[in-house]
Structure formats: C-alpha cells, structure tokens
C-alpha cells in the first residue's frame, strides 16, 4: 500500500497522481512530503521524501529497504521533483535519471567497532 504523508500529518492512502501533485504544490519552505510503500512481505523501509527549501529548491531522498541504500539529491524544479515522485510510485526503472544522487547511507549505518577502541 502506498501512503502519502505531509508535514502536518495529513495522510492519504493510495494517493492518485493528482493528490501527490497537490500535496507537493502545497509545501511551504521547510515542509516535507513522504511517499511510503508499506508491504508486510518486504522487510525494511521503502520511501521517497521531499523537503521544500522555498524558492523552487527541493531536497529529494529515497531509501530502498536498508539504511545503506539511502540517497539524496537537490532539485530546482517542482515539475522535475513531481516526475521523480510519480516515477518512483509507478516503479519505473528510469525514475532516478536526471538527478545527481549521493549515497547518504553511512549517516544511518553504525560504524564498525574497532578492536581495542576504549570508546566502543
């Protein structure tokens, strides 16, 4: 099941393209929108989220199940972000194209403990 949730906690189950577009367009600076796939048969977290920076700037992130598969990019077009969101929802294989993605999985994965480290 797909769920769209905005900064105010408004959640829509099975959102249409039009609903996703409206929720994105309604973001104010500092607001976010999360689209999450919830499937009990799949482990992990599967989502894409966008944070509005105002003035048509956006931070877009997605996570494919595990912390190590978490990526981020910046975008300056609401239309480009919308196409990315809709492509992700539809499971299109090329939805990531047109963005310069950076892996941020290390932010969410604990560092391995070193032997003899007194802080471990």
Name the beta content range: 25-35%
Tell me about the biggest sheet?
Answer: 7 strands, antiparallel
CA distance, first residue to last residue: 40 Å
Low-confidence regions: none
Strand order of the largest sheet: 2-1-3-4-5-6-7
- Overall geometry comes to globular
What does this 3D model show about the protein?
Strand 4 and strand 5 form a beta hairpin. The mean pLDDT is 90. The chain has helices spanning 17-25, 78-90; strands spanning 2-6, 11-13, 32-37, 45-54, 57-65, 70-75, 102-103. The protein has a seven-stranded antiparallel beta sheet with strand order 2-1-3-4-5-6-7, covered by helices on one side. It is α+β, with helices and mostly antiparallel strands and 120 residues long. Helix 1 (17-25) runs antiparallel to helix 2. The protein has two helices and seven strands; from the N terminus they run E-E-H-E-E-E-E-H-E. The radius of gyration is 16 Å and the shape is globular. The N and C termini lie far apart (40 Å). The longest helix has 13 residues, at 78-90.
